[in-house]
Protein: 3,4-dihydroxy-2-butanone 4-phosphate synthase
Amino acid sequence: MSNIKNAIDALKKGKIVLLYDSDDREGETDMVIASEFITPETIREMRKNAGGLICTCIHPDFCDKLGIPFMVDILDIAAEKYPVLKELYPNDIPYDEKSTFALYANHRMTFTGITDNDRAFTIKKLTDLCSSERFSDFGKEFRCPGHVALLRATKGLVTKRQGHTEMTVALAEMAGLTPITTICEMMGDNGKALSKDLVKKYSEENNFVTINGKELIDYYINEFLKQ
Structure:
């Protein structure tokens, strides 16, 4: 079985997969799980053993139906009233042209929104809302700002942008799951991203499948899209 098929199989079983993008991009490995399987234990695993920002990546079709814009689009409009927002525009990202950050949200039935229980609840409820196509209930059930970073995947996914956002949503799509994922960068104790050697050691100790961006993108374009 190919490494990508192993990753798809693991994702279907609700397991965490480790995804390294590339040496030419962020050079970071993210923990990835299909959001329909998120639990407080998953958030704890990401918080304690990854340590980066926990984000939820959403398919662009869902974002359109929910009405979720890119954050940069919000800044563009709001800058008319608050000019400093124009100065803050992220036009100098060293590894990409456009950020996929959208909103930060909490489910309205959470308390502070930051605990493992609250974040898992927000992510699970958002995934349930999308999978049941109750898009018009988004504003009734969620408030903003909150403690879950929502990322809007680019239309065309990895054919247009090759970030963790698009790659993980493509992975969920290939697995036949609701195309919403939750990710977190793995950080080292030296102030940098966790090295590939330490990621390999961690994945072997915990029996996690590890894949890289090139093999995922190649499989998505040359196998999945041609089916």
Residues 116-131 form the longest helix (16 residues). The mean pLDDT is 96. The two ends are 18 Å apart (CA to CA).
